[in-house]
């Protein structure tokens, strides 16, 4: 059973990653190209950046699909194991509804919460010197999102005063640590003077859109396939033991 | 909903062995999203190859 779920998560994650790659290629690459063109225009004449590139621009555009595909594979596998642990214990009892709920929660906790504090930036934005500290802060924000989710679920399970009270308790328990982290963690401000605000905004929308497409596609595919498998198993059980 | 019952719970001991896959999966995610050549020993090659993906998946990069 766990193996079935894991294989399902890996394959559907890969597929959803490639779908998200298609979105990123269509809506994100124009912004990446514009940002690189801006960077090149600002560099001193005679400084040829192209010669230093290990991978050509077309190579990087192909690498985009490799990146989103492998990302989907890894995330899909972890998702499947988390899903296997939650199944029948927490959340909706039907396979499809549980898959959609977990995918939606993961998007909010692991993508949206860090994005609000440390939004994605195109190439040419961001100081190479601070890459390590920025990465650590980003990971801390992911951990805050995950911890807040655990706190919210634990809180909701203790509230017995009805579904509305449970929802309010869950949302408050989630938002308190998240807003505290948004407020207390250091802000990163490395957009160069004069960088196009429109380009930055469009890039950030494309980046968030890529993750939204991934999690939507993955949640729907995983839920759909799981529901179909459950129906088939139920049908087989009925045939095997007609009572 | 013809004869569809709630999914059966998978016991934690049965799940435990499969959790060994998690470090492998996280290593793949690390190589895609964060490696700068230190672990992969490919210089910056992996980093550059998947550079656009990193930026568009929203991970910090330079």
Please describe the structure with a list of short key phrases separated by commas or semicolons.
heterodimer; A: 243 residues; mainly alpha; B: 62 residues; 4 helices; 0% strand; elongated
Radius of gyration of chain B: 19 Å
Number of strands of chain B: 0
> How would you describe the shape of chain A?
flat
Average pLDDT confidence of chain B is: 86
Sketch the major β-sheet of chain B: none
Shape of chain B: elongated
The percentage of residues in β strands of chain B lies in under 5%
Q: Could you list the spans of chain B in which at least 5 consecutive residues all have pLDDT below 50?
A: none
Major sheet description of chain A? none
Q: Tally the helices of chain B: what do you get?
A: 4
Oligomerization status of the protein chains: heterodimer
Give the topology.
The complex is a heterodimer of chains A (243) and B (62).
Chain A: H1 2-27, H2 29-42, H3 57-86, H4 95-117, H5 131-158, H6 163-184, H7 197-240
Helix pairs in contact in A: 1-3, 1-7, 2-7, 4-5, 4-7, 5-6
Chain B: H1 12-16, H2 21-33, H3 45-49, H4 51-57
Transmembrane segments (chain B): 15-33
InterPro entries (chain B): CbtB_put (IPR012667)
Protein name (chain B): Putative cobalt transporter subunit CbtB
What does this structure look like?
Chain A: Pfam families: CbtA (PF09490). Chain A: InterPro entries: CbtA_put. Chain A contains seven helices and no strands. Chain A is mostly helical. Chain A has one domain. The two termini of chain A are 26 Å apart. With 62 residues, chain B is an all-alpha fold. Chain B has a domain of 38 residues. Helix content of chain B is 48%, strand content 0%. Chain B starts with 11 loop residues before the first helix and ends in a 5-residue tail after the last helix. The mean pLDDT of chain B is 86. Classes of the chains: A mainly alpha (243), B mainly alpha (62). Chains A and B meet through helix 1, helix 3, helix 4, helix 5 and helix 7 of A and helix 1, helix 2, helix 3 and helix 4 of B.
